Amino acid sequence: MVEVYLNGRFVGDVENAKEFTDRIKQDRRSGALSSEVNVYFDGALNQVQVESSRGRCRRPLIVVRDGMPLLTDRHVKQLQKGEASWSDLIAQGVVEFLDAGEEENSLIAFSDQEITPEHTHLEISPLAMLGVVTSLIPYGDYIQSARLIIGSRNLKQSLGMYASNFSLRMDMDVNLLHYPQMPLVQTVMHELSEYAAHPSGQNIVVAILSYKGYNMEDAVIINKGSIERGFGRSTYFRPAVTEELRYSGGLMDTIGTPDKDVKGYKSERDYRLLEDDGIVHPEAVVKEEDVIIGKTSPPRFLSNLEEYSLASNIRRESSVSLRHGEEGVVDFIAITENEEGNKLVQVRLRDQRIPEIGDKFVSRHGQKGVVGLIVPESDMPFTASGVKPDLLFSPHGIPSRMTISHLIELIGGKTAALSGRMIDGTTFSAEPEAAIRKELCALGFNEAGTETMYNGVTGEVFEAKIYVGEMYYLKLKHMVANKIHSRARGPIQLLTRQPTEGRAKEGGLRLGEMEKDTFVAHGASLLLKERFDSDRTIVPVCEGCGVIAIYDTLKDKRYCPMCGENVEINDIEISYAFKLILDEFKSLGIYPKLQLKSKY
Fold first, then answer.
1. Judging by DSSP bridges, how do beta strands 108-109 and 121-122 pair with one another?
2. How far is CA 401 from CA 69, 393, 395, 406, 427, in A?
3. CB-CB contact of 89 with 71 (8 Å)
């Protein structure tokens, strides 16, 4: 007897597991059972698992019976004419969805040439094993699998035309590439996903060589002339939003330029860009700390006495100003209402981003690189025909990573650019590399993809032949302008008296244990002391009982809460965080006694 489980729950036994599973599959294909049901026979445990629960990953496959796929040329013609649809194929049992369990009992053929009588299913296309984004990578069968995954992640982070109605939208943190292009080396997925509507990269000339060591460790070198002609240029959009909230007691916020008697009024300079309605004007150039929407709110805490006094009329300042490190131009202003009918103001800022040192660029094969140097066009190496590459890629990025597809795309792009046609680089069914090389040779170039290049500074011929070609490069959203951060003195937290956290709050740069070790190794004791006193505080400590004493500022006296006044009290320099933990111990009923010793 074989146990049967439905969604992990025992429901009964069957005598013949094969007959039972075959019957379920047959009923599913004929439509008697839901197409959502999957069945799996586990021979090791002698169990049949029937699954119909939500959240399973399932994929479509063509059913094979007696060594013949059920999908015929007739079906394909019907699909092409629009007489049949995908759901018809599922209803007829020609195509079915398998989950991970049922796949264990299946033998799936990669292509129809491989089918034997033992096979149960056929792949619709080998490309279907990849996701939508991963199948955009050309020559994916010539690349290490880990790099293919990294390449798909990079595509998701690339800048492009995310939506054609971007000018009417208020989206958070949006980047827009100014001159996006379609790749010259494409896959079938570019057409299926309508990639032309939202491209996210540019075709550039790439040469694989070192240049004064500035493209070591995955860095890339960019031609300054290419940047001036628009390569990698993008705009960063960010909205600022505020609304007039209503509070209990009939009080509410007011959007407008705050009066000088408002609590927390900033300087007049901060409000200089606001118009009569308290909102910044379009195309205003704004920097950090500038107010873009003026707003005042009622006082936060109303006591019973204040309600009837004049003091309750003092409102507080709650304007929206630019955060630390932000700047840009006011691009678009929307004044509307929210669901509750309160006034809502949205201001969109834009900031043009021109590629600079530290920005991240990547090919579609997971070959990422940060700009290490921007070279004047006159100093760039050039080919015998006078072509100057837009980007120099380090040769050390290829051997260990085995991204052969990166090299093939260079040749494919070069052939596409010279012949004026797109190259099909679909994974598992791409144009063969040999044919591309032959075509490149017919166009008058070396089939190996190498060319003689000259030093741009001295004009001398490079001894080695340089591998150069055309490639689709992406600019990623990781830009140095969004990440650069430094701080000298600045705001501290109320509780711990340590610097605030994070770039937006002008936070401190934390030193860890390992960073401390480097100071110790260098013998930089004063630097070590300076770095570790962000919350230095001086507290009076009682010599008698070892607890923190009290300093009365009015009487200018020190006394101990336990021993009184007639005891020796000394000032000690400690970290404020240490003082907090002593207070924590006291609250737990533990007596933390500090034993003082003379330094000398």
1. parallel
2. 39, 14, 11, 10, 19
3. yes
* CA–CA separation, 288 and 284 (whole Å): 13
Token couple for 285: 């150039």
Domain C-terminal end among 81, 99, 124: 124
Q: How many angstroms from the chain centroid is the CA of residue 35?
A: 37
Given 353, 387, 403, the domain boundary residue is: 353
Q: What CA–CA distance (Å, rounded) separates 85 from 477?
A: 39
Closest to 569 in 3D by CA, of 589, 552, 591, 587:
552
Task: Please state, in angstroms and rounded to a whole number, the distance separating the CA atoms of residues 23 and 21.
Answer: 5
**Residue pLDDT, tens place only, 327-347:** 999 999 999 999 999 999 999
Mean pLDDT of 519-545: 91
- 120 with 7, same domain: the answer is yes
Dihedral sign computed on CA atoms, order 266, 270, 275, 281: negative
What are residue 466's phi and psi, to 5 degrees? -105, 135
Annotated catalytic sites, by residue? 218
The alpha helices in 180-284, defined as continuous H runs, are 188-192, 224-228
Nearest-angstrom CA–CA distance, 586 and 243: 45
Number of domains in the chain: 5
409 vs 298: CA distance, rounded Å? 63
Buried b (16+ CB within 10 A) or exposed e, 476-503: bbebeebeeeeeeeeebeeeebbbeeeb
How do beta strands 328-337 and 343-353 pair?
antiparallel
Distance between CA atoms of residues 240 and 330, nearest Å: 10
> CA 537 to CA 518: how far, in whole Å?
26
Cβ distance 265 to 321 under 8 Å? no
pTM, 2 dp? 0.84
Please indicate, yes or no, if residue 594 is contained in any of the structural domains.
Answer: no
- Give how far Cα 352 sits from Cα of 327, 486, 531, 553, Å: 10, 22, 36, 54
Residues 535, 8: Cα–Cα separation, whole Å: 56
Burial of 399 (0-12, 13-18, 19+ CB in 10 A): exposed
User: What's the rounded Cα separation, in Å, for the pair 128 and 154?
Assistant: 20
Looking at the chain, the number of H-run helices and the number of E-run strands are: 13, 34
Per-residue pLDDT band for 299 (boundaries 50, 70, 90) equals confident
Assess contact for 124 and 79: CB atoms under 8 A: no
Do 249 and 337 belong to one domain?
Answer: yes
DSSP state of 463: S
Which residue pairs from 265-270 have beta carbons closer than 8 angstroms and sit at least 24 positions apart in sequence? 265/317, 266/291, 266/317, 266/319, 266/321, 270/321
pLDDT tens across 459-499, in order?
Answer: 999 999 999 999 999 999 999 999 999 988 899 999 999 99
Counting every residue written for the chain, the total comes to 600
Q: Which range of residues forms the domain containing residue 423?
A: 136-233+357-475
Predicted local confidence at residue 567, as pLDDT: 87
Pairing between strand 202-208 and 391-393? parallel
Furthest CA-CA distance within the chain: 106
